[in-house]
Amino acid sequence: MSNRLFEDFEPVSETAWKQKIQMDLKGADYNETLVTKTNSGIDIKPIYHSDSAPQLNIPARATDNWFISQRIYAGNATAANKKAKDVLKRGSEGVLFVIPNKEIDPTVLLKGLPEYGIQIHPQFMDLDYIKQVHGINPKAYVHIDIINQLASDGNWFNDLKKDHYNYAEFIKSFSGYFSQFTVNTSLYQNAGATTTQELGYYAAHLNEYLNHYCDTSKEHDAGVYDAYAKAEKRINIDTTIGSNYFMEIAKYRAYRLITKAIGNLYSIDLKCYITASPSHRNKSLLDYNVNLLRTTTECMSAVLGGADTVYNLPYDEFFNKENEFGDRIARNQLRILKDEAYLEKINNAADGSYYINTLTKQLTEKAIELFKTIERGGGFVQSLFEGTIQRKIKESATQELNDIDNQKKIMVGVNKYPNADMPLQDEYELYPFVKANPRKTLIAPIVPTRLAESIEKAQM
């Protein structure tokens, strides 16, 4: 019956749709009226049609499903272990430990926890410590990114030569997914990079590792290439989720296309594992309950775009200490998406969308062009030392701030529809603004900044 129904309607071409739109505009300019320009350099059109939509072959998730995790700051091994056991009973499917120093005893931290679903984020580079972790849980994922350390702190863990040597030892010493390259792009997005920049910097960041370590003529580095060429490992991508719903869906699909493209340069069938969490960039002290809405749609974007693991950001994380209420709400937001919105039932929900496929293709192409520009300039690390990356991010962040001031970009409760019943507090448990940390550094570090900070400060 349905086939006969649709046979009664002639298909309408993209050209016919555009002609109809032009008639309805009655002389108004199509581009000025209906086309939206974005800071990522992509114009959003009013119509996307099968006649011009690209056909994309997006690599599948690393896993059959997406997983709910929870970030735990492991400043105290006993307390972090207790909290991990608690959240695993209450809806989380994994935990992500941020370990500040090597004094945190991994034997205590990991005691009684499951083999799978454990991510380790040490904020230091110590091979002996990592060996201890491996002895306790060889199925854990250890995330270390020496370039992110340089970009965020301004200094290496030790120095360039020692860090690269230790990183090669880390990759070669452990089989499977325990040790692999991690590319953390959260810093770029949180500092104000556009989506195109985030993806382009990812490509250049990843290539910096592969270019350095996949030279098979070097005896020490040949083992790194072998580990990836034999598909024993994949790339960890740690990301934050921006506020543009459809653009973010396309971004996560583009991550997989770019990973494959960079792998092809080295004749490696490269795959990736994507961990995503909402950004701090668009969160605010003003009408802070709106942060719940922001994190919900952001998590949806990551899931529909194909992220493997998602951990949520408590609405009050940047101004309150860790608390049961914020953690529980954040975790339950993800449980609702999985258990009640059924977002775990299909792995490729965005397939077939002309709009998202077009965005994915455009983001991928623009990111690759940016990557090529960075390579012509000497590579990503060289660009960091020259300050090019920092300058470009600052320019994008300034443009976004101008859009907030001019209300071209709307933040509900901040620059539009302010809630007079929720004024700023006199004091917060945590200092919610950028903290100055003057010290000697090799490069100017990239500094994350929330969009609403200047508005908030003006009202305090």
The CATH topology of the domain at 179-363 turns out to be TIM Barrel
Radius of gyration: 23 Å
Q: How many E strands?
A: 10
Order of helices and strands: HHHEEEHEHEHEHHEHHHEHEHEHHHHH
Protein name: Methylmalonyl-CoA mutase
GO molecular function: cobalamin binding; intramolecular transferase activity
Pfam families: MM_CoA_mutase (PF01642)
InterPro entries: Cbl-dep_enz_cat (IPR016176), MeMalonylCoA_mutase_a/b_cat (IPR006099)
What structural keywords apply?
single chain, 460 residues, alpha/beta, TIM Barrel, eight-stranded parallel β-sheet, two-stranded antiparallel ribbon, 18 helices, globular
Explain what the structure shows.
The protein is globular. It has helices at 2-7, 14-25, 30-34, 77-89, 106-109, 127-136, 146-153, 160-173, 186-191, 195-213, 219-229, 245-265, 290-305, 324-340, 354-376, 380-386, 388-405, 453-459, and strands at 36-37, 43-44, 67-73, 94-99, 118-122, 141-142, 182-184, 235-241, 272-278, 309-311. Helix 10 (195-213) crosses helix 15, helix 12 packs parallel to helix 13 and helix 12 (245-265) crosses helix 15. The strands form 2 sheets. Strands 6-5-4-3-10-9-8-7 form an 8-stranded parallel sheet. The mean pLDDT is 94. It has 18 helices and 10 strands. 47% of the residues lie in helices and 10% in strands. By secondary structure, it is an alpha/beta fold. One of its GO terms (molecular function) is intramolecular transferase activity. This is Methylmalonyl-CoA mutase. Residues 142-420 form the Methylmalonyl-CoA mutase alpha/beta chain catalytic domain. It holds the Pfam family MM_CoA_mutase.
